[in-house]
Task: inverse folding
């Protein structure tokens, strides 16, 4: 997941071309990350030190970790940590950028340092993204919602994130939640609940993005908002909400699900706060919507 | 290998379930997108087992289950639900359902539950 954030940052800063990023992201599944890149990512070594170790490796035929300890750049615990991290693919983007000649080690280090400064994410939060820890990732982007009343929203969004990663796209990037007075949509997938606690939830996007979303879930090519698309979107929402309501039932909150709906060209006007969390999938943007009370729907004048 | 009828108003859900059941070498002899058609197909096709979605428009799955049991008290019906609500599942089991499966489908759970219902 971290690769999505860092890759997007490199694009926004014009440090990389879109076709270059597409190429390295496509290749990252089959490449094993090198310890030198991991050491830079972790802040344990700088590019000059890594470069020196690489040169020593060529001369002495020893492993990176051994040489780095000999030269005093790493301690044994750090080498163990880096070796464990090597199993994950978080730093493959960086390695591929270097191997493809898009960045030098120094340029990669500079970009990573600048990203850490510009993103306003703490070192721990960046590590959470690298670890793909969904519970903690949801907390990062909902940290402005920390009250007890927001507990259900945080749990709901965490589950939504898990189900997106599970069924649709594991390359998701989200931004912090914002509250809005109203929200205009092209298409909105929603499902109401009834019982002791009412909440409104759904996700909105363009027809093209939702058709692709539906196609992935249905495992079929879908080109527009046809009957199969509506069915697939409704089923995803139904399955997701079913899982969430089952979680609530374990907490003693019994709710029932209403019929799923796919609404076209309208506006959501909440009676209370409406939260919007922008989520960027590999094929487009969806907005996750949530309100603690039922909103009103208004049809736009076409 | 059993002859199975799938009843669910979602074509996507029917497709996902068919795929799992066929990998377990069951034969899907029919599908129905609503309860009324599901009951008719049950009577016409005489499947070994029916998978029945609980939440369907017009005629819900539990009503169809009760009608199937009236036709054949020994009928094997496994309920399908997105919401594992205790009271609804209990109602279905009391009405004669053999078991239930929750969505989203977990392959192992589907195959095992169907095998146990057929035994």
Result:
């Amino acid at each position: 997941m971290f690769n999505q954030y860092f890759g997007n940052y490199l694009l926004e800063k014009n440090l990389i071309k879109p076709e270059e990023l597409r190429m390295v992201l496509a290749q990252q599944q089959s490449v094993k990350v090198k310890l030198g890149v991991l050491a830079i990512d972790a802040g344990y070594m700088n590019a000059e030190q890594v470069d020196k170790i690489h040169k020593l490796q060529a001369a002495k035929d020893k492993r990176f970790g051994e040489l780095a300890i000999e030269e005093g750049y790493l301690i044994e615990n750090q080498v163990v940590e880096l070796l464990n991290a090597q199993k994950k693919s978080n730093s493959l983007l960086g390695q591929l950028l270097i191997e493809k000649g898009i960045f030098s080690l120094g340029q990669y280090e500079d970009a990573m340092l600048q990203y850490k400064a510009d993103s306003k994410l703490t070192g721990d939060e960046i590590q959470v993204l690298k670890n793909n820890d969904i519970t903690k990732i949801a907390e990062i982007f909902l940290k402005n919602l920390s009250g007890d009343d927001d507990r259900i929203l945080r749990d709901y969004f965490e589950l939504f994130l898990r189900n997106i990663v599970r069924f649709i796209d594991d390359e998701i990037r989200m931004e912090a939640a914002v509250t809005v007075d109203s929200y205009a949509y092209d298409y909105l997938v929603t499902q109401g609940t009834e019982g002791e606690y009412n909440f409104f939830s759904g996700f909105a996007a363009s027809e093209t993005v939702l058709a692709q979303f539906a196609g992935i879930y249905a495992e079929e090519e879908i080109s527009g908002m046809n009957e199969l698309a509506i069915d697939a979107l409704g089923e995803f929402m139904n399955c997701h909400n079913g899982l969430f309501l089952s979680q609530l039932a374990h907490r003693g909150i019994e709710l029932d699900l209403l019929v799923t709906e796919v609404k076209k060209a309208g506006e959501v006007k909440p009676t209370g706060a409406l939260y919007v969390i922008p989520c960027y999938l590999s094929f487009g943007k969806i907005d996750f919507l949530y309100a603690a009370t039922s909103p009103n729907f208004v049809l736009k004048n076409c | 290998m059993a002859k199975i009828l799938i009843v669910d108003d979602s074509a996507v859900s029917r497709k996902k379930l068919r795929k799992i059941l066929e990998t377990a070498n069951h034969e899907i002899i029919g599908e129905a997108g609503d309860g009324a058609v599901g009951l008719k197909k049950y009577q016409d096709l005489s499947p070994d087992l029916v998978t029945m979605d609980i939440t369907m428009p017009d005629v819900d799955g539990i009503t169809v289950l009760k009608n199937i049991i009236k036709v054949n008290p020994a009928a094997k019906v496994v309920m399908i639900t997105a919401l594992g609500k205790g009271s609804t599942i209990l109602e279905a089991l009391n009405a004669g359902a053999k078991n239930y499966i929750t969505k989203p489908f977990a392959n192992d759970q589907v195959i095992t539950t169907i095998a146990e219902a057929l035994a």
